Amino acid sequence: MNSPDTPEAQAVRVDQINRHVSQKAGLDQELESQVPPRYGSFTVITLGVILAILFASVIWMVI
Asked: What are the entry keywords (predicted)?
C-alpha cells in the first residue's frame, strides 16, 4: 500500500485540494455550460450611434 509520504499519495492530496479550490471558485464547469455575456445598454447605444454616423456619412457622400 501507499504510505502517506509517497509521491503518489501527495499527488492525490494536491489533486483533491485543487479540485476543492476550483469548485469553490466556480472554475470546474464545462465551457459549454457557460452562457456568454450579453451586451449592456451602453454598448448597444454606442454601437447604434456609430452605425448611425456611418450611415449618415455614406448618404452625405452619395448626395
From this structure: Membrane, Transmembrane, Transmembrane helix
Query: Over 90: is that where the pLDDT of 55 sits?
Result: yes
Residue 9 has a CB neighbour count (10 Å cut-off) of 13
Give how many domains the chain has, as a whole number: 1
pLDDT of residue 43: 92
Q: Which is more confident, 49 or 4?
A: 49
User: What band does 30 get if pLDDT is binned at 50, 70 and 90?
Assistant: low
Specify if 56 maps to a domain.
yes
Residue 2 within a domain? no
What is the extent of the structural domain holding 20? 7-62
The x, y and z cell numbers of residue 13, run together, are: 492530496
